[in-house]
């Protein structure tokens, strides 16, 4: 995906060149200033997040597109990082992560979900959640394996599967963007290797409930199908609801990579630090890949996080913090022509703009940025096969109140 500047158009990324080899035989070389290669991801261009943030910057628009906060991290956490650097913690950390941090992670899982993973064998610190997802897929998906992906899906899922020869099998969320266990059941075949779920869901803003997890556990019982549960927004669940984690269900936990993010939890997406929990037999395979594509993760940040996590209040306050932002944004748009879909978790709000325009979502998102000064994400790039007649945008409300108020004012004028 590329942009032609603030007054231009968003357009898909350029097609890759022709395949260089076919059936093991070289194609005669075509005169060119560049060598031609066979792309492993021929349908993949620049992500919609990069494209919309670039357009927002070019147009001076308020950026509610890419999912990052515009408020600072806790000064205490920043000070702990500086202290770790001054104390000399600037060299490689152990491959699976600093022992003190892995122990803190295991203790947190026990507090929240009633199960303690073995810090030595079942906890690995990663360079963000995307790397954890990529590495998990690399470790267990073989050529020809099928992986069930629920659309709209975060855009790194399918490319990771394709890179390692797997076949993404796309199903959709049900009505009101709710989890549809029956759709997953219909997609499972003898070749299914993994099911990928995401709760709270990006971009839908809905959550899986305990009944959904139970249905999934019953569905996978007696199979060799693995689960990847993306739970990076675990603390951002609203209206008194509890986060339903795969960890709570032994039948899921024993077959699952469960992925989390410090960046999402502590307002520090640029640090790119997360972690994955998995039973020992899965984690052993995960670490075989992790040691060669990352090896280890930012050492002073790990030291700081290990100390910071000793105070559970730091993450226990997050639901109320983001609930207030969610409510402020939703109530503010009550006077607009946007129709908001239910938001049960995450820091994303879906909005239907069909009362404003019948344009496609990509074109409308561009015009919203260029003419009205607010950038959002169109929903269609999250689908393998976008549904017809859908007019939805995703807004990120993880912003300062002043930023939200300024965006609300612009959106209500449309």
Descriptive notes:
This protein has 414 residues and is an alpha/beta fold. It folds into two domains: 2-67 and 317-412, Aspartate Aminotransferase, domain 1 (Alpha-Beta Complex), CATH 3.90.1150; 75-310, Aspartate Aminotransferase, domain 2, CATH 3.40.640.10. It contains 15 helices and 17 strands. It has helices at residues 48-59, 75-86, 99-113, 129-140, 157-163, 181-187, 210-220, 250-253, 262-265, 280-293, 299-308, 313-316, 318-332, 361-372, 401-412, and strands at 2-3, 10-11, 21-22, 25-26, 62-63, 123-126, 146-151, 167-172, 192-198, 226-230, 256-261, 274-277, 339-340, 348-352, 374-375, 377-378, 392-396. The protein has a seven-stranded mixed beta sheet with strand order 6-12-11-10-9-7-8, sandwiched between helices. Helix 5 links the parallel strand 7 (146-151) and strand 8. Helix 13 (318-332) packs parallel to helix 15 (401-412). The longest helix has 15 residues, at 99-113. It is globular, with a radius of gyration of 22 Å. The model is unreliable at 12-31 (pLDDT under 50).
Which secondary structure elements does this structure contain, and how are they paired or packed?
Elements lengths: L1 E2 L6 E2 L9 E2 L2 E2 L21 H12 L2 E2 L11 H12 L12 H15 L9 E4 L2 H12 L5 E6 L5 H7 L3 E6 L8 H7 L4 E7 L11 H11 L5 E5 L19 H4 L2 E6 H4 L8 E4 L2 H14 L5 H10 L4 H4 L1 H15 L6 E2 L7 E5 L8 H12 L1 E2 L1 E2 L13 E5 L4 H12 L2
Parallel strand pairs: 5-15, 7-8, 7-9, 9-10, 10-11
Antiparallel strand pairs: 1-2, 3-4, 6-12, 11-12, 13-14, 14-17, 16-17
Helix pairs in contact: 1-14, 2-11, 3-11, 4-5, 4-10, 13-15
